[in-house]
Amino acid sequence: MMIARLLAAVLAAFFLIAPAAAGDAELAKLARSSGTPDIPGLKMVWLAPWGDVRSVRGWRNIIVHQTEGPAGSARGGAAEQSKNPTRRGVTVWVETDGTVYWAVAENLVPTHGDGANRNDNKYIDNSATYRRVVRDNSIGVEFAGNYPDVTTGPTDAQVAAWRVLVKLLRARYDIPLDHVYAHNWIDYKDSRYCEGCWLATLARMWGE
Asked: Which stretch is the leader sequence (predicted)?
């Protein structure tokens, strides 16, 4: 009986893992594509299409930001970013309802980050990030909605979108898990809250 129960448990685990593995394989394949692909699990609004992944900028890090804007502000922020790609902002914007806006072509560098000026090791070991994790080698993702209370966390829809999006970005640019950073981990930011920290922590907790 014990062997039968063990076999049943192994089979159940296999059937739970197999769909996830198949989904990850499909996502990894889509992550290397061009154009404006449909990404399962994401509502993507493409303001700039993907190019040939073999020739896009070599992003080595992901920086998670949160904007002090109300619900709905990601759409406007992404639209402005698309018109002026190098303005202060990011490549990817995430609305409170989970909609993801890809605003900027992959070969352009928005102005985000403050030069990786944090070196106090408050959140992580900054010896690997100080003056190294900067806008030129990092793709930025902005989550809207922490207004008027900056301590407001991401919505459930944003967390669900992030779970897929972070895998997509890592697969497309071959970014290691430990190169996903919260803005507050690498730059001195608003002392009232830790910008991007929960989302970056979640990404690392989810693992591979």
From this structure: 1-22
Give the residue extent of every domain in the chain: 33-206
Q: What does the alpha-carbon distance between residue 123 and residue 106 come to, in Å, rounded to a whole number? A: 29
Q: 3-class secondary structure for the chain?
A: CHHHHHHHHHHHHHHHHHHHHHHHHHHHHHHCCCECCCCCCCCEEECCCECCCCCCCCCCEEEEEECCCCCCHHHHHHHHHHHCCCCECCCEEECCCCCEEECCCCCCCCECCCCCCCCCCCCCCHHHCCCCCCHHHEEEEEECCCCCCCCCCCCHHHHHHHHHHHHHHHHHHCCCHHHEEEHHHHCCCCCCCCCCHHHHHHHHHHCC
Phi, psi (degrees; rounded to nearest 5) at 139? -95, 135
| Whole-number Å distance between alpha carbons of 121 and 199 | 19
CA distance 174 to 13: 28
Q: pTM to 2 decimals?
A: 0.88
Tokens 């697969």, residue located: 171
Class of domain 33-206: alpha beta
